[in-house]
From TrEMBL:
UniProt xrefs under InterPro entries: Anoctamin, Anoctamin_TM
Segments passing through the bilayer: 217-241, 253-270, 301-321, 488-514, 535-560, 580-603
Protein name as catalogued: Anoctamin transmembrane domain-containing protein
Subcellular location: Membrane
GO molecular function: chloride channel activity
Signal peptide: none
Amino acid sequence: MSSNESRLQNNHMDAASTNTDVLLALTAPEPVVRYVEQRVRAAGLRVARVPATATVLKVSAPSATLEREAEHLELEKRLRPEARSCASERHWPMREFVLAQRADFAGAGEGGFFTPSERVFLVTALLEAVPVDNASFSAALAAGAVREVPPRHLSSLLRALASVGLLGEVSAAHCAGRLEGWRRSVGLLREWAWLRSSEPLALDAIRDYWGERTGFLFAWQAFYVQALAPPAALGLCIWWRRPKGTSVDDDSAVPVFSLFSVVWALLFSVRRPEFVGREVVSEITGEVELVEGRGSRALRYAASLCVSLACLIVPLAYMFVSLNLQDSLRHDETARDCLRLPEIVIFLLNKAARRDCPRLPEIALLLLHQAYRHEAHDNSLIVKRFLFEAFDCYIALFYIAFELRDVDRLRVELVSLFSTDVFRRVFTEAVLPLLMQRLSRRRHAAASAAAKKEDGGAGGGGTDGGSGDLELDEHEDFDDYLEMVIQFGYITLFASAFPLASALALACNGVELYSDLFKVSYLCRRPRRPRVSGIGTWLGLLYVLVVASIFTNAVLIAFASDQLAPLLPQLFDARQRQVGQWPSGIVLLLVAVEHGLLLLLLATEVTLPRPPRWVRLTLARREHEALLAKRRLLLEAPVVATPLGDVIEATPVGGGGGSKR
């Protein structure tokens, strides 16, 4: 364990070498900028202006300030081996940081004690807590000829700046450890270390620099790629042994693969916009809060439903037109191939609907989610956006599978999706942004050189110090999760139509795993996100797809293909199939298999431990040890007599503390 701690400590040393943790971009006149600098310095933070700019501030904090804030936010840090006295700490060597016990923590007082992501988290919390003095702020606004008047109840400087439209953005600044995760992951790939380890990526380095949310994204992607190996191997075997002249429609081995895929998926899934309302004074806290009436919320839901239906009409109409044209041009291969690209058209429609025209799905979601805040808003927004995307991606496939009942055609559509999707994703998410970024930098360098030449060589010709980070694109992990979950649906919902889907997904995701890491490392801003403990709502969406795959594969095998005919010929009657009737034996078998899989799903929910036993034991021990420590502190607390004769117990130093911000 000591070697691992030293490795982590060396990784973090470069984080302390930077003088910038957060960039604060303002759209304010000079008097307001000076006022902001004064207030930020008064809060114990360091602030300086980015060279060649007048309104971009570099904000950081000294180690002492970070340690106080870490104690206030109850940030957990790793303990030294000799300080792990409790049983739970020997299994999980972490403890909430306390200044009075700082000698117990590994690396305390050294330059790399806090990881880069922890520094951003702490500095952001300190910056959001900087208070505003209404009188002096109003004077600074008047001196800068700003006519807007901020609300009097706002106590945060950032919120006051945002209320008058002077806050551009708050972004985390890149530092020297930016490429550490990428370099170490590529090193693991070159050494084939991923074959000997459960982690194909340097997840510790990714988490320490980019934060827990990005770390969970890549950890889940890596786990998904590794989990695809069993169905990929079985799918390749079925494809390899298939006799000539046998199609997927009448292959007797495909039902076995479908059953295996559903069970595999079952085991695999075991698992804002600003709020607008009217201001009222809370009867509990006495602070001003935003609330919304039931009538206003009902109107927003109704408006959201109308806009959502309008957004779904376009892909639905395209699907019907495309499929009908493919039917009419079935004998014209060239024309049919031109129409067999629904995933590209759907991708363009989604881009146009989300970013242009004018972002109709977002309008619907904004109307729907005005009453949600923070994590609840984000989770509900993910569900609604996923429904938009899943409808676009799956509606044509469901129509072919269950209305036309054409398994061969369904397989062709899935082959088209998988053959073009990986190239589209890598090109649009990594190659194209890299080319555009380099072109933009060349133009910016040429413009800076021309301006410097006109000034006679005086002045600085660049955005040294981090303002270039503001020109990078923000990393949106929704798209990365969405692609994986939609692909998971292709593999599980239509397993009986395309057994090779798992093998193709394994190869494609292996490429995209490093493509996404390259994109994040070179092309994106450093995220400034809240700390998380999992992948959130996406796990529930995977669970829904698993349940749906039980029904879709059962119907495809029994009613849309002849895959069961070679296995159970006694249950099939050709005359009944010709008149559209289904034998009662097939229906009973379908119901039995479906109920059996649902019972298996219920059994895994009840029997499989979540989280693992050692995690539950460690958490229970920590809770018990915290209770014992609190009792000891109460017993050791000195007794103080008041002038009225009452006896109270003084709270000991370090014995618990204030509420979190």
